[in-house]
Amino acid sequence: MAISPAGLRPEPGSFRDPANRVFHAGDDVLRGLDARAAEDWRALAGTDFFTALLAAGKVCGTEAMEPARVPTDTPWAAVLRHERIPFISHPYEWSFSMLRDAALLHLEILRAALPAGFTTKDGSAYNLQWRGSEPVFIDVGSFEPVRDGEPWAGYRQFCQTLLYPLLLTAHLGVDFQPWLRARVDGIEADQLRPLFRGARRLLPGVPTHLHLHGAMQSRNAAASTTDVRAQLRAAGYSRELALATVRGIEKLVRRLDRRPATSHWADYQRTCGYSSQDRVAKERFVTAALADGPRPRLVLDLGANDGRYARLAAQHADQVVAVEQDPAVADALYRALREERQQRILPLVMDLADPSPGGGWRGVERASFADRAAAADVVLALAVVHHLAIGRNVPLPEVVDWLAGPGTPGARIVVEFVHPDDPMARRLLANKPDGLFPDYRREEFERLLAARCRIARRAELPSGTRTLYTAVVGG
Fold first, then answer.
1. 96-113 vs 164-172: helix axis angle to the nearest 10?
2. How far is residue 70 from each of residues 23, 58, 200, measured CA to CA in Å?
3. How far apart are CA 444 and CA 417, in angstroms?
4. Residues 68-97, mean pLDDT to the nearest whole number
5. pLDDT digits (tens, 9 = 90+) for 158-179
6. Which among 308, 326, 303, 270 is positioned nearest to 379, based on CA atoms?
7. Could you give the residue ranges of the DSSP H alpha helices within 159-234?
8. Which of 418, 385, 386 is nearest to 278 (CA)?
9. Percentage helix, strand, coil, to 5, in the chain?
10. What burial class does residue 116 get, using C-beta atoms within 10 Å of its C-beta: 0-12 exposed, 13-18 middle, 19+ buried?
11. What is residue 224's predicted lDDT score, i.e. its pLDDT?
12. In whole angstroms, what is the distance from residue 173 CA to residue 166 CA?
């Protein structure tokens, strides 16, 4: 059965490689290949290394389909169907260990491809996504036959979007997320070199991959790619040397680790002031809200902390996106989920008062968090409202509008309102001028919530200073 042209949507982030393009048709993810890319695909599909990567889930599920079924303006020579990744995320939303594991998978794939006569022409972190805590390589169109004497074409991208951010955090303790978010192409060597002077020049990976690489880029700035390749061939650069280089980078990346960071939120479960009775009552309320209605395909846990409620949601949903502002806390959550081999929970680093905007070309190449979150069936906002309304000075009506915004009509919101006399709210209010938040009251919150949603259930926790609500958007 042919796909209707009206139902075919080009992927806004897939336009940089003219040899192939990604489209969406309903739940199907399709990739059109030109004649040369189609030839490379047929050769790739017949290799043992690629079959093994597919079987291990390290490359996204891929199968060929009839090109005639995909009516596009470009007459593609071949069309592939890929598995759909549950939730698309961006590298600047990942924790340190997530970025490192993504880098290691990319290098593992390249190390497997080279002996079989293939390479990857791209090295971007955006070529990887996640099934929960498991990274997966998605850019099948990046594979191409390797030519002896030529360097890895994706090396610069790998450095800018993976290696340099890792060096920044591992060696200097600086969170890489704002740096990656600022530039869709990653961190350039010229930006990073001033931070690695003096003794820092000798830190692992810095001399070769930052200073030497940057110097070679400057020296060859006027040379054509053909000239550079000819110089490397003349110097005896071979596939074996390329493989040794990949192994060296892989060894370096494995050694890099995030410096331990002191974080208020890392010990939040002990310091948040919940009694055991509050915690039991809260878990029962959240469980009932998740179980009441159709099984959710996507749950957003906003302010996930250590993932207690994300894990609870994963028992009732297909996929949970656990958003946490503190990079150290998100990294600890990811490491725990990785040990559990949890494939239903994706932890992300994000400031909810400053969520990821649309980015890249025309602001749509990388979709905003709001656009991606619109598919949520359930939104958990537990102990979040007071941090936004008091801690970040976001007006309470704006907070309620934001809560009702991510989900589609009929989506459920499970929200906790922390009363002004709660110890955590008093702690936040103590740092604010008197009378700054006259409307921060439970009655006003309920009025605002009822204007946007149908309040299906409410319950006050045993402490008497926190109220839970289940609300239905547009209900």
1. 140
2. 9, 27, 53
3. 11
4. 89
5. 999 999 999 999 999 999 999 9
6. 303
7. 164-172, 177-182, 189-192, 206, 213-219, 225-234
8. 418
9. 45, 20, 35
10. middle
11. 46
12. 10
Residue 128 near residue 86, CB atoms below 8 Å = no
- Distance from C-alpha of 361 to C-alpha of 13, rounded to nearest angstrom: 8
**341-345, Cβ contacts within 8 angstroms, sequence gap of 24 or more:** 341/133, 341/134, 342/132, 342/133, 342/311, 342/314, 343/131, 343/132, 343/133, 343/134, 344/132, 344/314, 344/317, 344/318, 344/319, 344/320, 345/132, 345/133, 345/307, 345/310, 345/311, 345/314, 345/320, 345/321
Paired tokens of 263 = 């974080």
Task: Give residue 223's pLDDT band: very low, low, confident or very high (50, 70, 90).
Answer: very low
Degrees to nearest 5, angle at CA 138 with 112 and 48 = 30
Range list of β-strands (E), 244-339: 298-302, 319-324
Question: Which helix H or strand E contains 109, and what residues bound it?
Answer: helix 96-113
Give counts: helices (H), strands (E), the chain.
20, 16
Q: What does the block give as tokens for 20?
A: 């192939």
Q: What tokens were used for 25?
A: 């048709």
d(CA 435, CA 416): 23
The single-letter DSSP state of residue 154 is T
Q: Which positions ≥6 away from 46 have C-beta within 8 Å?
A: none
DSSP letter, residue 116: G
Amino acid occupying residue 362 = R
Strand extents, DSSP E, 202-354: 298-302, 319-324, 345-349
Q: Give the amino acid at 138.
A: I
DSSP class per residue in 34-86: -HHHHHHHHHHHT-HHHHHHHHTTSB--EEEE-GGGS--SS--SEEEEEPPPS
Which of 448, 470, 432 is CA-nearest to residue 399?
A: 448
309-318 pLDDT per residue, tens? 999 999 999 9
Residues ≥6 apart with Cβ < 8 Å to 276: none
As a whole number, mean pLDDT of residues 305-324 equals 97
**What average pLDDT does range 196-222 have in this prediction?**
81
3-state secondary structure of 129: strand
Torsion angle in degrees (nearest 10) through CA of 5, 6, 8, 13: 120
pTM of the model: 0.92
